[in-house]
Design goal:
The chain is an alpha/beta fold. The protein has two domains: 13-274, 2-enoyl-CoA Hydratase, Chain A, domain 1; 281-371, no CATH class. Helices cover 47% and strands 16% of the residues. Strands 2, 3, 4, 5, 9, 10 and 11 form a seven-stranded mixed beta sheet that branches. The chain has a four-stranded antiparallel beta sheet with strand order 1-7-6-8, with no helix packed on it. Helix 3 links the parallel strand 2 and strand 3 (99-106). Helix 3 (81-94) runs parallel beside helix 4 and helix 10 (276-304) packs antiparallel against helix 11 (312-332). The protein is elongated and about 95 Å long. The chain starts with a helix and ends with a helix.
Length: 372
């Protein structure tokens, strides 16, 4: 089975996995975000206090959480569905009604990560939580990830779109329709017109819209018949903060967390900002940085050992030690080793380890025999 066939099959399965939701294909209501309460404030408590007891403790326990998960780097490597699942589980443990904000800064990445991303983000929504995407840069797989959120907010210089294919350059016909259909369906899952997703995938899929002057309702077209044109036949659609807001693709624009919470209409005093998402992000970021620093040297040692020493036993010992450490890294950061650093798979390393141990054993026997 070719890589292209695998990708096409994966995307077809994504479409089949998507829940059947009744979503209008052409129109968008004036706003998908809930109405702001009579009094709202950006000043949600940034962190739970450590009350000794009494009313303060009860108030802290009553507050719902705002989980902010930064998603940066390559989708499927630094930007992982695993971290989204972790936050989903934390939100579920806190009970329904939490807020999860995914802060995206990514140029895209691996198609193979999309089923798990879908499972994690739809799991957040199914758990009764409010899922929000906050866009610094969401290109290709980054945009695909953001689509699952019913609410999307842009930073002032934010951009989102251009969902290109991972295989090859330009428009690749094999599997192309499955890819476009998957993106369109993901758009619908977020409560948006599938025409938007198609224009992000294929430049020849055009996009324009009208705004009803009385109701504010936006109607998208897969032609240029609308009053406002968003794409052309030369470039895949990429939103900026301005045109995304005008067509109500985005729910607002915010550069800071305070501005974002205000735009979201978060009720004052009812939520506290959890540090859990940042901790999850920082831990994985440190792991990736350490991996990027250590693994190439281990891989070099695995391949060459201490060949400069002229001592075969030293060479074998260093290669064995390097493989053992590489196998440990496979447990800690498989995404980095497989896709970023392209280290041989664990099974291959295990086989090589056994061979080297056997060579080491034979070399010892030979050395001991020579000494008698």
């Amino acid at each position: 089975m070719t890589q292209m066939t695998t990708i096409a099959t994966l995307l077809a399965s994504l479409i089949a996995m998507a829940p059947a939701q009744a979503v209008l294909a052409q129109s968008t209501s004036p706003s998908t975000k809930p109405a702001a309460p009579a009094k709202s404030s950006a000043k949600a408590t940034t962190k739970a206090a450590a009350p000794s007891g009494g009313k303060a403790a009860d108030d802290a326990e009553d507050k719902k959480q705002i989980f902010i998960l930064p998603l940066e780097g390559t989708v499927g490597i630094q930007l992982r569905a695993k971290d989204m699942h972790t936050i989903k589980d934390m939100a579920n443990a806190a009970g329904p009604g939490q807020i999860v904000i995914i802060k995206i800064n990514s140029n895209g990445g691996l198609v193979l990560e999309t089923p798990e991303i879908q499972a994690a983000l739809m799991g957040i929504r199914d758990g009764g939580h409010r899922l929000v995407a906050w866009i610094e840069k969401a290109i290709s797989g980054g945009a695909f990830t953001a689509m699952y959120a019913p609410e999307i907010y842009f930073m002032k210089t934010g951009s989102m779109g251009s969902i290109t294919r991972i295989a090859g350059q330009g428009w690749v016909e094999q599997g192309a329709q499955e890819w476009e259909d998957a993106v369109a369906r993901t758009c619908e899952m977020g409560g948006r017109s599938p025409f938007v997703g198609r224009a992000m995938v294929h430049a020849e899929d055009l996009l324009s819209y009208d705004v009803d002057p009385d109701t504010g309702k936006v109607t998208f077209y897969d032609t240029l018949e609308g009053e406002h044109e968003l794409s052309n036949a030369k470039e895949n659609l990429t939103f900026n903060a301005s045109n995304a807001l005008k067509c109500k693709f985005s729910s607002g624009t915010a550069d800071t967390l305070d501005d974002l919470l205000a735009a979201m209409g978060v009720p004052e005093g009812q939520y506290q900002v959890s540090e859990a998402g940042n901790k999850v992000f920082e831990k994985w970021k440190r792991t990736c940085e350490q991996c990027e620093k250590e693994v190439p040297e281990l891989f070099r040692q695995y391949q060459l050992g201490g060949t400069g020493t002229g001592d075969g036993m030293v060479v074998l010992g260093k290669r064995i030690d390097a493989i053992k450490k590489l196998l440990e890294w496979w447990k800690k950061a498989p995404e980095m080793l497989r896709y970023e650093l392209q280290v041989p798979e664990p099974e291959q390393l295990e086989q090589q380890l056994e061979q080297l141990k056997y060579q080491q054993q034979q070399a010892r026997k030979q050395r001991d025999g020579a000494g008698n």
